[in-house]
Specification:
Elements: H1 16-26, H2 29-42, E1 46-49, H3 51-54, H4 71-83, H5 88-95, H6 103-114, H7 126-137, H8 143-154, H9 166-175, H10 181-192, H11 194-198, H12 202-209, H13 213-224, E2 248-253, E3 256-261, E4 268-271, H14 273-284, H15 289-326, H16 328-333, H17 344-351, H18 355-362, E5 366-369, E6 372-375, E7 383-385, E8 391-393, H19 394-406, H20 416-425, H21 432-441, H22 447-450
Parallel strand pairs: 2-5
Antiparallel strand pairs: 1-4, 2-3, 5-6, 7-8
Helix pairs in contact: 1-15, 1-18, 6-8, 9-10, 10-13, 14-15, 17-18, 20-21
């Protein structure tokens, strides 16, 4: 006998327009520009119009540019992007005709170049490349026979390209340097004691190669001047013209802070007057109902989209102004130690918006300030209560930890336990494992890797 069960669920059903608006809130400025272009192309009833021409019309929607402040910056980045449009692969292929390769060898070299990653490394094995050549080009060649071709690729500029790991990359660059005693020693150390070198096991290197501290110090100096990512100065086609454009600009005038929304275009968006007139005529003449319905949908869609952009502006500014009010001292000074603990809930309660809305607004957005450009998510942090009851942001603790690390004795860097003790002296009782987490978030290595001679 089947049992019947009554199940009650509480859910929130969002309309397609609500979902679209949430997406508009979430996307950053550069993606918004593409979204607007797509909408203009897909909806003939949406049009752009200059403010001066139609400033007195009630149907106009405001979409004015305030981007003049960073126009020069954007032009600079575009110029850099144009100069770097040549990819690493293109740059290497241009050098192949000078390598005295026959047609078959040239095909193999081109294939290997096509397998390099964005940093210039050959992360695939020669065996897998050999299999691909057989499968895709019907070329049967062994790993051993591919090795001379790889050597040709490794002789191209930039030096170090075509390496299969960091060790080989560094050795390739050392081979191309003037063979001084320190360069020869560096090659020998990397060749025979790479792990000890990478782990800064100075005692083992001193004993193994019977050299003094100055010689080892010079070896590290030589290696530090090498490029661990020889292909990084190039971009692939997908990365061209990728740079940060701030969604907000913060202007500071004495103690007054003013948030400006960076908008993407100098023209306004509105529903088309031409299509509205056409709809009016069709309705008066009782024309084709399908045409009337089509026009209504397009005009309503255009008006919704234009108004949604205005609502997006208002929501973004409301949220950003709230963040600035909470982090007032930081935005006036740029001192991270003045950051206040802040969560999405804090913003939500102050401006009466849902947490999910705040999350979307702050997602992947940047603000340009007199002290640099910051990701909005950087201003959110957990609270830490000191013994005296003072509540501070954990970013303040990280800032103090950064100061300790910068001023430590590089010959004997602090362990995580010692860092915990140092913070304890400042009134921050932080466990060692938490210190390790904060250190990792600051991008600082463990003590043995920070050690210097």
């Amino acid at each position: 006998m089947q049992k019947q069960r009554l199940k009650q669920e509480i859910g929130l059903n969002l309309s397609p327009q609500q979902i679209q608006f949430m997406n508009l809130l979430q996307i950053p400025l550069m993606s918004l520009e593409k979204r607007i272009e797509d909408e203009l192309e897909s909806n003939p009833a949406l049009e752009e119009t200059s403010k001066d021409k139609d400033k007195n019309e009630d149907t106009e929607t405001s979409w004015e540019s305030t981007r003049n402040y960073n126009q020069n910056t954007e032009e600079k980045y575009r110029a850099v992007a144009r100069e770097r449009e040549l990819s690493l692969q293109d740059f290497l292929l241009q050098q192949l005709p000078m390598q005295s390769l026959d047609d078959d060898e040239s095909v193999l070299a081109q294939f290997i170049i096509g397998c390099l990653d964005d940093n210039g490394f050959l992360s695939r094995s020669l065996l897998s490349i050999s299999d691909d050549l057989l499968f895709k080009l019907n070329i049967n060649i062994s790993e051993t026979d591919l090795m001379p071709i790889l050597k040709v690729v490794q002789n191209l500029d930039p030096t170090g390209v075509g390496a299969r790991d960091l060790k080989e990359c560094l050795l390739l660059q050392l081979e191309n340097k003037t063979q001084t005693e320190s360069i020869k020693l560096a090659q020998s150390i990397l060749q025979h004691q790479y792990t000890a070198f990478a782990n800064k096991n100075y005692e083992k290197l001193l004993k193994e190669f019977e050299v003094d501290e100055n010689q080892i110090r010079q070896v590290y100096k030589e290696v530090e001047q090498l490029n661990p990512k020889p292909g990084s100065s190039f971009t692939n086609s997908q990365e061209i013209n990728t740079y940060i454009t701030a969604d907000f600009l913060l202007e500071a005038d004495n103690d007054e802070l003013n948030v400006i929304l960076n908008k993407s275009r100098s023209k306004s968006l509105r529903s088309s007057q031409y299509y509205k007139k056409m709809l009016e005529n069709l309705e008066q003449e009782k024309g084709d109902q399908e045409a009337i319905q089509f026009l209504k949908e397009k005009i309503e869609g255009a008006e919704w989209f234009a108004n949604a952009l205005i609502q997006r502006e208002q929501t973004l500014l409301k949220t950003m102004n709230c963040i600035v009010s909470i982090q007032d001292e930081f935005f006036k000074t740029g001192d991270e130690k003045l950051l206040q603990p802040m969560k999405l809930m804090d913003i939500s309660e102050k401006i009466d918006l849902d947490i999910s809305t705040i999350s979307r607004v702050t997602n992947s957005k940047y603000i340009e300030t007199p002290y640099g450009t910051f990701l909005l998510k950087e201003f959110f942090s957990d609270a830490y209560s000191k013994e005296d009851g003072t509540v501070i942001s954990n970013k303040v603790i990280k800032s103090h930890l950064q100061d300790i690390l910068e001023n430590e004795n590089k010959n004997k860097p602090y362990s995580d336990e010692e860092l915990s003790e140092k913070l304890d002296e400042l009134g921050f009782h932080i466990a060692r494992r938490t210190v390790a987490k904060y250190r990792d978030q600051l991008g600082v290595a463990v003590a043995r890797l920070r050690r210097e001679l």
